[in-house]
């Protein structure tokens, strides 16, 4: 359904440090920079792109929006959360934990305020 998700950043260098660390914690590759200066992360068939706004106005986080990323295991979720908070992210909601549906979930905001979640599926939903 989606080709990619694009979010804005006011500091691409800071975003690259944050997203490289969090994607590496999930076992993914660090991001690439395209000729326009946008950061591109590919993981499990999905693509996240980060850019400075082309209209010249400051980037702002989506109110009510959340970007969900799949993790292999609860250990990857914990590693993602630890890497993100160590690189400028802010933990939100609850600490990384198992939900009643069996998913292991963590939430945080990136340094620009974008809301992210990473979750591993129960082995029966794999």
From TrEMBL:
Query: Where does the record locate the signal sequence feature?
Result: none
User: What CDD domains has UniProt attached to this entry?
Assistant: VOC_like
VOC domain mapped to chain residues: 1-121
Q: Where is this region: Disordered?
A: 85-126
* UniProt superkingdom: Bacteria
Q: Which SUPFAM superfamilies match?
A: Glyoxalase/Bleomycin resistance protein/Dihydroxybiphenyl dioxygenase
Q: What is this protein called?
A: VOC family protein
Q: Which organism is it from?
A: Peteryoungia ipomoeae
